[in-house]
Design a protein that fits this description.
The protein has about 190 residues and is mostly helical. It contains 12 helices and no strands.
């Protein structure tokens, strides 16, 4: 508990970092819609709407679709099928949870993106704790790089799988660090 408090960010820093990220989330969505006629995040937004339609019309398919392996055998080779199956999973892992939140977001891209960004932001917080443990005298530098460095914040702020990779990588690093430090499985529970 004491180590957690020692590595904690002040609430005002966390709030500012999240508001900064929301600003980039809105900017990202606006720029790519206005100047590039949408990008993959806007395609994911449309897929979220389709997933929500599937949830309303065929809930069984909505929940079981990721476990149908038809894509594996729908191509010339199993390797090609596996490639497309993994691409589907990349979309499902973003779209299906956000489709469940569709009544809350009312289908608004920006609301979906902000909710989605809670996970990558938590990843940033975990990485901050991890790096501060290793470099306690570099708090401001680590904070700036993880939370305020524009290129990173911009690319991590859209509806992209990059944000999930950040979150799960940070979760793995933080959990492994706790396991090594505590030498107990309790480390995973503390996350």
């Amino acid at each position: 508990w004491n180590a957690r408090q020692a590595n904690a960010l002040p609430f005002s820093w966390v709030a500012f970092a999240f508001l900064f990220r929301i600003g980039f989330t809105v900017t990202y969505g606006f720029l790519f819609l206005r100047y590039y006629n949408g990008d993959d995040t806007w395609m994911l937004h449309r897929e979220i709407e389709e997933e929500f339609g599937q949830l309303m019309n065929d809930p069984q398919m909505f929940f079981l679709e990721p476990f149908y392996f038809k894509e594996l055998f729908a191509h010339e080779t199993p390797g090609t099928g596996f490639h497309y199956y993994l691409m589907d999973w990349e979309n499902w892992i973003i779209c299906k949870p956000l489709a469940l939140l569709q009544p809350l977001t009312e289908g608004n891209y920006y609301c979906q993106a902000i909710l989605f960004n809670l996970l990558p932001f938590w990843g940033n917080l975990l990485l901050y704790r991890y790096f501060i443990t290793a470099y306690p005298d570099r708090r401001k530098t680590v904070y700036f790089i993880l939370f305020l460095f524009p290129p990173l914040v911009f690319w991590w702020s859209g509806l992209r799988s990059d944000g999930l990779l950040l979150f799960f990588s940070a979760l793995l690093m933080a959990g492994a660090s706790m396991l090594i430090k505590d030498k107990k499985t309790r480390g995973w529970i503390n996350l």
